[in-house]
Specification:
- The chain has 760 residues and is mainly beta.
Length: 760
């Protein structure tokens, strides 16, 4: 249910070595990451690559996760980098580990609170596809020491191709209101805040896949008049039929309506200074939400001109009157629609007490995070045309099997769980300048994780998991007589993390740096969604890095060797053979060695250049699974030692910028991703590609700024990620495959964006 992020080994922020305003050399945040330049999405932060499956906590606001779990409540449904924020940064891995218990970078944001006087900012963005995005914040003073801040965000995004099934690929609205009381003598402030969001992130299922011709040498070419990224691969009909996992009722909805996310949040923020270096800050938030994450996975691609296909299939489509007529196209795409949704209540509390000494800062914090959810994923299969002329696809049905467009309800990846999870944690960090040349940063976290609830991992009389079957729901009966009833689950675990970093200045410019982070986790409640119980053994994640840094007035360089691994990754593969789909659960490990070099150079006035080079080889460990199909064929996968799918071995980032005048800035960003494998068996692969961005920013006057950004200005087209239904294909089988139609994800197309920001 998660996507593997691209692997790279991260650098430490050597920039802080030259920061004379910072007492400590270990800042909590990284720089030079262009976190909002995203080639995969037009409205969310990029995932910074660490070589592991992405963690749930990846965006924080006011010290708390924006969403406790991203499935079924995606971050972009309730958070945007808009005018309501006063700060957006990127927390280091060590800081994320200690304060949240998760591995990886986290976007760190702060809400814009009221200030003296009156301030306002209005941001506007559009693109040549018709996007309309508005963001407004107004804040000021109501009375003595009493301040307000109100914000509104509106997004009307038709995407890069027109849909017939909905008007927008993203329709999101977010409203915030905050009231702040400042304490006397500048000792701090207390803020009460309310936020409401309503979002339909249609792009999650509308932009996932498209057909292309796989040439056989790592390149692809377009299928007829179908243009990758600018032609829709969704059927015209917006409605979909599904069987409710909880009740067994057959229901119909539109994909747009089902994909609605709603959230109502109430927050309290308290910052208090006691003097003598003591500071105390607390954040608490209650959120009641409906989270929804709809996606449609392409499965089998059927060639009706293949041997035996004419006698096997009899595909029909509806004409303009609704009558059935024979489908005369060559290809048919089968699709699995997953309608994920849940009702969520979460109460999150974080409090930190810090003390600043002459040469160090000590911090003690506590998390109390409670998450309650009633979740299910209803799955539906349907078939559609694959139009070579670039027209809209239509839904089909095989009259030899059924007269219904939708079939195999809940047979494949359907999910269910209901219950709560609680994490109570205590953490401590110490940032210490031991000598003017030696800095140490270390910390630890201990966490009690408890979860309780029910799921649909049902066993029969022999003790074997029943698995999903057509028309599966709670209360039905399996073919062997097993009653499908919820199974109880209850676990208590102790998790712990620790981190340590040393930086030694051999000279004023040159030194050595290294850090080590170790995390022990256990599965979250969402891991209990499939038809089998997950591996509940501990998940350990060690990350170690060591290298050198060099700084002077115009250059900052860090070069590091790194190692990271993660044990007991739980996953479920949907394996396909002869049109049949079987779910195969497995547990596996990943490990990555790497070398990375990060450079920030300012060789002359007005010119900045950021360079990042990474080489690594992330591999699967203990990656073995098999499943037997009804024909008797046994599909086996042994990917141990293989390069992790979708992950490049070489990544390069080039970010030059130049101030043409004091008010006019020209900038570009180039990201290179080397060859990636498109299936687990390393049978298919995609050649390396560039993701490019560029822009011109003009500060017209002290109130108005204008900008133009071009996404993918090299206009590079092609596929990326994985190839649908290719998990069981081996290297030997792939050798003879040339110029074959396949489906998969693709690069974001050439896009011109215009922005304006008005301060008043």
């Amino acid at each position: 249910m998660y996507a593997l992020v691209l692997a790279s080994m991260m650098t430490m922020a050597a920039n802080a070595q030259n920061d004379k305003s910072s007492k400590s050399s270990n800042s909590k945040e990284e720089g030079d990451r262009n976190v909002m330049l995203n080639a995969a999405s037009a409205n969310g932060p990029r995932e910074i690559q660490i070589g592991l499956p992405s963690a749930d906590v990846n965006v924080l606001e006011n010290g708390l996760p924006v969403t406790y779990a991203t499935n079924p409540h995606p971050v972009n449904a309730t958070w945007r980098s808009d005018a309501s924020l006063s700060h957006v940064g990127l927390l280091k891995i060590s800081e994320t580990a200690i304060t949240t218990g998760n591995i990886g970078y986290a976007v760190n944001s702060q809400t814009q609170l009221g200030k003296e006087g009156f301030q306002g900012v209005l941001n506007y963005k559009t693109n040549h596809f018709g996007l309309q995005e508005f963001s407004l914040n107004m804040n000021g003073q109501m009375a003595k020491d009493l301040f307000y801040s109100v914000s509104a965000y509106q997004d009307f995004d038709p995407g890069t191709f027109k849909l017939r099934s909905s008007q927008y690929q993203d329709r999101t609205q977010i409203y915030k209101a905050a009231l702040t009381k400042r304490y006397a003598q500048g000792r701090g402030e207390l803020t009460a805040m309310y936020k409401y969001s309503n979002s339909h992130p249609v792009y999650n299922y509308a932009t996932q896949s498209a057909p292309f011709i796989y040439v056989g040498d790592g390149s692809v070419k377009e299928f007829g008049k179908f243009k990758l990224g600018t032609t829709s691969y969704l059927p015209i009909d917006a409605n979909i039929t599904y069987r409710d996992m909880r009740t067994g009722e057959l229901k119909q909805t539109s994909l747009y309506d089902y994909d609605e996310n709603r959230s109502s949040e109430v927050s309290l923020l308290n910052n208090l200074s006691f003097g003598d270096g003591f500071n105390w800050k607390t954040s608490v938030r209650y959120d009641h939400a409906r989270g929804a994450f709809v996606y449609q996975t392409p499965m089998s691609l059927i060639d009706l001109q293949a041997d035996g296909a004419a006698s096997t299939y009899n595909y029909q489509q509806s004409d303009v009157t609704g009558a059935a007529q024979k489908y005369n196209g060559r290809y048919v795409q089968t699709r699995m629609s997953c309608l994920n949704a849940g009702t969520i209540d979460e109460l999150l509390f974080t409090s930190e007490l810090s003390k600043s000494f002459k040469s160090s800062t000590l911090r003690v914090g506590v998390n109390e995070w409670y998450y309650n959810i009633d979740y299910c994923s209803n799955t539906t299969m349907y078939d559609q045309s694959v139009p070579e002329d670039g027209s809209y696809a239509v839904r089909l049905w095989d009259a030899n099997k059924t007269q219904s467009v939708f079939y195999d309800f809940n047979k494949n990846a359907s999910e269910y769980y209901k219950g709560h999870e609680n994490k109570l944690a205590l953490y401590l960090t110490h940032d210490w300048d031991i000598t003017p040349k030696l800095n140490a940063y270390y910390g630890a976290r201990i966490e009690w994780q408890r979860l309780k609830g029910e799921n649909a991992a049902v066993k029969n009389a022999n003790g074997d998991y029943v698995g999903r079957f057509a028309d599966y729901y709670l209360g039905t009966t399996a073919a062997d007589g097993t009653k499908i009833a919820p199974a109880n689950m209850e676990y208590d675990w102790l998790n712990y993390d620790f981190t340590a970093a040393l930086t030694y200045k051999l000279t004023n410019n040159f030194g050595f740096t290294g850090d080590f982070t170790y995390i022990v986790q256990h599965p979250t409640i969402s891991t209990f969604a499939p038809a089998t119980m997950p591996n509940t053994d501990k998940i350990s994640v060690p990350l170690g890095r060591a290298g050198i840094y060099y700084n002077n007035k115009w250059l900052s360089l860090t070069s590091l060797f790194s190692y990271i691994s993660k044990t007991n990754n739980n996953s479920t593969l949907n394996l396909q053979h002869d049109g049949e789909i079987k779910a195969a659960p497995l547990t596996y490990d990943i490990q990555t060695w790497g070398w990375t070099t990060d450079v920030v150079a300012r060789p002359f006035k007005g010119f900045d250049f950021h360079f990042l080079f990474t080489y690594q080889k992330p591999t699967y460990k203990k990656y073995e699974t098999s499943v037997k199909f009804s024909s008797g064929y046994e599909g086996k996968i042994n990917a141990t030692g293989n390069i992790v799918a979708e992950v490049p071995e070489v990544l390069i980032e080039l970010d030059p910028s130049y101030m043409i005048t004091p008010t006019l800035k020209l900038w570009t960003s180039f990201r290179y991703f080397s060859k990636t494998y498109a299936n687990i068996n390393e049978a298919y692969y995609f050649n390396g590609h560039w993701e490019t961005f560029g822009g011109l920013n003009w500060q017209a006057n002290k109130r108005l700024s204008l900008g133009c950004t071009v996404v993918n200005f090299l206009n590079q087209t092609g596929a990326k990620g994985s190839i649908a239904g290719a998990e069981l294909i081996t290297k030997e089988e792939a050798k003879g495959i040339k110029n074959q139609l396949m489906t998969g994800s693709y690069l974001r197309p050439f896009t011109v964006e215009f922005t304006a920001s008005l301060k008043f």
